[in-house]
Amino acid sequence: MKKLALFVAFIALSFAVSSCTKETPTEDNNSSNNQWEAEGNGAPVNATDIDTAIVSFVNMHFPETSILSCNQTEHYFRVILNDNTKVYFNQAIEWVEVNCEQSTIYGAVPATLVPEQIAAYVTANYPDQHIDEIERENNGWEIELSNDVELKFDANFNVIGNGGGNGGGSSTEYPDINTFVSTYFSQTEILSIKAEDDEYEVKLADGTEISFNFNFEWTHIDCEESSIYNAVPTGLVPDQITAYVSTNFPNQQIEQIEKEHYGWEIELKNGQEIKFDTNFNVIGNGGGNGGGTPSDYVEINTFVETYFPQVGIFKVEVDEDEYEVKLSDGTEITFNLAFEWKSIDCDESNVYGVVPAELVPEQISAYVATNYPNQHIDKIEKRANGWEIELNNGVEIEFDSNFNVIHIDNK
Description:
By secondary structure, the protein is α+β, with helices and mostly antiparallel strands. It has 4 domains: 2-107, Inhibitor of vertebrate lysozyme, Ivy (3-Layer(aba) Sandwich), CATH 3.40.1420; 148-270, Inhibitor of vertebrate lysozyme, Ivy; 281-343, Inhibitor of vertebrate lysozyme, Ivy; 354-411, Inhibitor of vertebrate lysozyme, Ivy. The protein has 7 helices and 25 strands.
């Protein structure tokens, strides 16, 4: 009796599953490049081993067809039906994508699988189209219509991305973004809005691109490709930056502006990039004009005037935890954010061929004079536990905090 029962169960399952081999219908070359497709074909699952939840799903939503093949990858199950519909399930047997684009029976994703809000949006905005594909994503949903328009929705069913450029970011979705655009870019309109990991990327119909954080505060504006606006609207540029550009670059306009953790960065029409700190001091200038003037950092300028009086500052750039200063003779100096010098490199200097003696501890100077009498110090660096120097012959010497030599690299 037990053998008979197993045989009957196998026959019943076979009605839902016609085969489960590696042979699958020809895949559409235009199918979406999702993460489960990227895992490859995977291993075939025998008909008798297919999870009953998958079989039930197919019977419920696709009663006019049956399973042709089932393959398991590292994270997913890929099920292909006899009508060429593809369904993907995660390891918890929750469906993550349904693709009916190549179906010979179902011309659209079954309505039972489409959230009501998405169905209503498509009916209102694309009445002549149907949904070919639907995908569950971490933060919402993505669909593709029969005309190939791709739409993304967040978890609250707001449209956040529109591959076809229609309807994305309308006033019914993100009023903060729409208000911003209507205020500062009134001659154009929103083409698309896409939500990324930590920001909204907005593209306008004229080519302008704007980024917002999730508090709807703008972080970046790029008018370089705009067919209408040839500069960032002045209402968005701080007065101090506008004044600086007017004085130093009177024939240029600001094409891009970005809020940074250290302040601001702009790009002019001539390609010049200029960085400002939070007090609107120039801290970096791609063209080497204006960076590091006495109006910027008094501490840095005083240091240079004291120890390198024969040259001037070429540019000052701020990194995450230091200021990088380049002098007009090629000398490079780094300072921490407290304006304490960290390293000095005179190797490329055409004026100072040696680190000024006043900046070298006496113990290091004495060691070099005794052991390398014909050499001088090209570079010096303060370290957490001591010092490192490089001589003009390329020898590198490390000292601990008590000026004991702990390493010599003769190269």
